[in-house]
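hey so u asked for the seq, here:
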Amino acid sequence: MKYNKLEQYNARASHLSQIHREPFRHAQLSGKIKPFDWSDNQLGIRRGDVNVFKAAALAFNHIILVRATNPESLKYIGNRNMYPKPIDCKAKTADSDAYIPFAYGHIYAKTAGLVVDPTLVGAKAFKDGKYAKAMDAWSEFLKDKTPDERAKKVFRRHGSDKGCFAVDTDVHSEYYGCLMISREEAPASFDETALTATPKWRNSHARLEGVRYCTRMQYMHGDYDLYALLNLDNPNELHLENVVHGVKNYYSPKLEAIQEFVNKGIGVPMIQHGEQFRYKHQGDKIYAFYPNNSAYMIDESTASIEEIFEIVYGVV
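ran it, structure tokens below
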């Protein structure tokens, strides 16, 4: 091998530059992990739930990162007519209530914080250009639905004999345009049923083909999406995966235990599935809970979050 002093010098200079740059970059990125702001009037988590996540972080020696949910959803947590959005519902929650024009006037629908059919509630139910994303998510939700399901706006759940989704299409309902869920047995002749998604259906039973089926419906609000569960004893532990209601679910070994702990503490199953970052990183507002009883917020781009995970958290 030919000895080249210039190449050797350049390589050494690059190495020294990297050594001096890493601590600076670590400090720079750490500065993007900001203290939890209790004064934020648009918090995407209930204040009372912060202590539940802190306790879980301590109990399991994990850093628990949670995506902020729609602030308008928070008021519905614990309402018996409402349920957190599950993994197989990728439709979006609305940001605002909706005034929907009809031939005889307008419908005022309480859509803020609830999962909606954007084709019914329209663009004004969404802020900051989110309507296009809501339409894309709705198209994705409909992708595996039959023409009959789409026409009736009543949809099977996959991977289970129980449950269905339905859009509230009752023009007299205060939640017109909102998507509902039943976690009970779906009607036997699902495609043929003429059931309409009304409040009466939501709170009653339907008798079909001589068999009594429970079809109690609940409107859906935003859940708490886990962004990451970082085990401080093994930050790069292997993740697991399974399929839930036809959707691939990536999760950490401690997910089930942490999920049960948090959901019991909140009193509602707000954690519905595994972690976002196991699938891909995504720019978002994220709350981070540490085992030392501290809480932080990250509100950065996808690229910055990737760097934070690699350089600050040591996750590759």
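The domain at 33-69+223-312 is CATH 3.30.70.1720 (Alpha-Beta Plaits). DSSP finds eight helices and 16 strands in the chain.
lmk if thats what u needed
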